[in-house]
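Protein modeling request. Please complete all fields; requests missing the sequence field cannot be processed.
Requester role: graduate student
Desired output: 3D structure, token encoding
Chains: 1
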Amino acid sequence: MPLEPDTKEILKVHPSTNQQTFSNTTIMFILIVLVVPLMALLDWLMPLSP
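Delivered output (50 residues):
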């Protein structure tokens, strides 16, 4: 993924905000990883009829 190198560089440049940035990135990553498959599963189980 193209965002990984940029994030790592930012963490290296700003060690003081390392923990906060890591927390925000981790939360967003977890939400995406959990929500996207969940939405796909719901669409597969209960396809929306037009």
